[in-house]
Amino acid sequence: VVQEYERVIIFRLGHLLPGRAKGPGLFFFLPCLDTYHKVDLRLQTLEIPFHEVVTKDMFIMEIDAICYYRMENASLLLSSLAHVSKAIQFLVQTTMKRLLAHRSLTEILLERKSIAQDVKVALDSVTCIWGIKVERTEIKDVRLPAGLQHSLAVEAEAQRQAKVRMIAAEGEKAASESLRMAAEILSGTPAAVQLRYLHTLQSLSTEKPSTVVLPLPFDMLNLLSSPSNRTQGSINYPNLSKPVEPLNPKKKDSPML
């Protein structure tokens, strides 16, 4: 009896009987002349062990994968292959080495799905002549050397630090622009300056109650900040622009002389 997921291939005196494979259901054969082989048509999985590949940018890594396939033509399969799993394993390894040699390390790490699809198409073009249909392939894991892992970690950290500095610079730029606009507004509105002054005094008294603040009148501040009081201070300097009169030699210093 042949199950629904099985097919039977009959050889009579060593020759493959013409016609398609038998099954499912009952089949008959001659015990003395015929031999039969059952083929499972269900989906099969094959784990591909780690193997080394060389990338386009000359990095060496180890990759393992999984291949999903099914027997599509039992007669062609039995007459073509003796060891199905070994043939598929070696084919997957050589195909991945050939395809990954044209891709960089970054592409392999970021584009696993597209790489697996390319491997599947390349495998299916070969296994179809064996009577095998490759359903899909997947890259399980990628092993990098320790030195390469450290280099990638340092590069990623440098990129993160650069991004943080860019964000901080953008924030400082926006803050400086806001401060410039606020300064322009305060310079044109004296009342706003006084309100800001009072708000600062209130903040200091709230946050640091032990701090003693001696407020100065605004008139005194304006007096100190006026341009006329910043020239020479309180010292009266002589006017050097007025010419000095020469001494008269005929003029006597004393009436006694």
Provide tags for this entry.
257 residues, alpha+beta, Tetrahydropterin Synthase, Chain A, 3 domains, three-stranded antiparallel beta sheet, rod-shaped, Stomatin_HflK_fam
Distance between the termini: 161 Å
Q: Look at the structure and give the CATH class of the largest domain.
A: Alpha Beta
The CATH topology assignment of the largest domain is Tetrahydropterin Synthase, Chain A
Rg calc: 47 Å
Q: Numbering strands along the chain, what is their spatial order in the largest sheet? A: 2-1-3
Instruction: Note the run of SSEs as H and E.
Output: EEEEEHHHHEHHH
Q: Tell me how many strands there are.
A: 6
Choose one word for the global shape: rod-shaped
The residue-averaged pLDDT reads 77
Query: Could you name the CATH homologous superfamily of the largest domain?
Result: Band 7 domain
- Report the structural category: alpha+beta
**Percent of residues in beta strands:** 15-25%
| Count of helical stretches | 7
Helix % is 40-55%
Largest sheet: 3 strands, antiparallel
| Uncertain segments | 228-238, 251-257
CATH architecture type of the largest domain: 2-Layer Sandwich
Biased composition (Basic and acidic residues): 248-257
InterPro entries: Band-7_stomatin-like (IPR043202), Band_7 (IPR001107), Band_7/SPFH_dom_sf (IPR036013), Stomatin_HflK_fam (IPR001972)
Subunit structure: Interacts with nephrin/NPHS1, KIRRL1 and CD2AP. Interacts with DDN.
GO cellular component, one term: cytoplasmic side of plasma membrane
